[in-house]
Amino acid sequence: MKECLVIVDVQKGFLNNSTMFIPQKIKELCDKRKFDIIVSTKFINNELTPHYQYTNWKGMLDKGSQELDPYIKKISERIFDKSVNTVFTEEFIKFIEDNKIEKMIFVGIDTDCCVMKSAFDCFDKKIPFEVITECCASSGGDKYHKSACMIMKRSLGTDFVH
Length: 162
Fold this sequence. Notes:
The protein has helices at about 20-30, 50-55, 65, 70-75, 90-100, 110-125, 140-155, and strands at about 5-10, 35-45, 80, 105-110, 130-135. It is α/β, with parallel strands linked by helices and about 160 residues long. The chain has a single domain (about 5-155), classed as Isochorismatase-like (Rossmann fold, 3-Layer(aba) Sandwich). Strands 3-2-1-4-5 form a five-stranded parallel sheet.
């Protein structure tokens, strides 16, 4: 089974006291488990995004905050820009089809937003997946991370979220 590690939005603008440990946890995961392909996503906010238009959120607008963590950038075979919560952009869908990806493993930031939305979309598309919650965090703090994990375990199943 061809597995793809999908590292969601481990960017400078999302790294804070609640998330700083994530690059190291992902490194530990990659040291002990091999993946066929490793990709990353990069959230790009601008005046046209739903976050900007509907919630008036003006974070992640500048290039500096959008930069991936250096380790994550180094190990990523491909980086997908996105301006929505899910990783399932047209470009990403074409990539998984072209590369015959059979299973996705999600890690990254924010558990309560882009990681969770991507996992739900994977579930709905009937694509095998895992969310490795010890390699996920929320820039909003641990209570949001724990809540998202609880929701995903209940809705998607503990076989997929652990």
